[in-house]
């Protein structure tokens, strides 16, 4: 490798390192090595949450150690927030509380499990399959709905004018015995557009 090639690669690497440092300084809530968030040290994010000065956004998934999660309650269990810029998503209640007035883009994707929640070999052999209706609710009022069929993915996207303090969640109706696929197969997200 020629000396000029080495210099070019080294210059490119230095530019990338400078860009990375800039991104960390702007967006990383970092661990200082002592459990504090001073922004110095290892730059390991303490959570997946970006500073609250960023735009309003959240993204949550259904988390389970199993491939699917039974819908035993009315609320679909979006219990793992991967992104929550304003700490507005409650993983326990699977509810997003609107932090600012504005127009929001809300997206929902659910994949129904192939068989009922009682996933025994008997039910698989008999082909017991279920579907259910998923509804997006704002303060318990339905704003959008979709049918989620067994072993199929359903998605919806809706723009909603929301007011600070309103609560959004996804509920399942007619879901007796139904279950949804977990992790990347089922998500609930939103972004403030303006």
3D architecture notes:
- With 194 residues, this protein is α+β, with helices and mostly antiparallel strands.
- The chain folds into two domains: 1-46, no CATH class; 48-192, Jelly Rolls (Sandwich), CATH 2.60.120.
- It is 16% helix and 36% strand.
- It is built from two helices and twelve strands; from the N terminus they run H-E-E-E-E-E-E-H-E-E-E-E-E-E.
- The protein has helices at residues 3-27, 121-126; strands at 57-61, 68-70, 80-84, 89-90, 95-97, 102-111, 132-138, 141-148, 153-162, 167-173, 179-181, 187-192.
- It has a five-stranded antiparallel β-sheet, with no helix packed on it. Strands 4-5-10-7-8 form a five-stranded antiparallel β-sheet, with no helix packed on it. A two-stranded antiparallel ribbon has the order 2-11.
- It is globular.
- 26% of the residues are buried.
- The model is unreliable at 29-53 and 116-127 (pLDDT under 50).
- Residues 51-194 form the C1q domain.
- Keywords: Secreted, Signal.
Distance between the termini: 51 Å
Helix count from the secondary structure assignment:
2
Task: Please give the order of strands in the largest beta sheet.
Answer: 3-1-12-6-9
- CATH class wording of the largest domain: Mainly Beta
Taking all Cα atoms into account, the compactness measure Rg is 21 Å
Q: Quote the beta fraction.
A: 35-45%
Helix percentage range = 10-25%
Instruction: Indicate the low-confidence ranges by residue numbers.
Output: 29-53, 116-127
Largest sheet: 5 strands, antiparallel
Tell me which CATH architecture of the largest domain applies here.
Sandwich
Task: Provide the CATH topology of the largest domain.
Answer: Jelly Rolls
Q: Which structural category fits the helices and strands?
A: alpha+beta
Shape: globular
């Amino acid at each position: 490798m020629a000396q000029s090639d080495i210099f070019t690669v080294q210059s490119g690497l230095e530019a990338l390192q400078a860009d990375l440092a800039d991104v960390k300084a702007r967006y990383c809530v970092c661990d200082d090595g002592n459990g504090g968030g001073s922004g110095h040290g290892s730059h390991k994010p303490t959570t997946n949450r970006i500073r609250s000065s960023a735009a309003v956004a959240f993204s949550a998934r259904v988390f389970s150690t199993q491939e699917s999660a039974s819908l035993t309650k009315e609320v679909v269990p979006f219990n793992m927030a991967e992104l929550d810029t304003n700490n507005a998503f409650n993983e326990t209640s699977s509810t997003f509380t609107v932090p600012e007035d504005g127009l929001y883009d809300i997206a929902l994707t659910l994949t129904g499990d192939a068989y009922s929640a009682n996933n025994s070999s008997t039910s698989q052999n008999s082909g017991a399959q279920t579907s259910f209706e998923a509804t997006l609710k704002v303060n318990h009022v339905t704003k959008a709905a979709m049918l989620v069929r067994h072993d199929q993915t359903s998605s919806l996207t809706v723009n909603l004018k929301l007011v600070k303090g309103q609560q959004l969640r996804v509920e399942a109706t007619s879901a007796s015995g139904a279950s949804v696929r977990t992790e990347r197969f089922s998500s609930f997200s939103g972004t403030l557009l303006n």
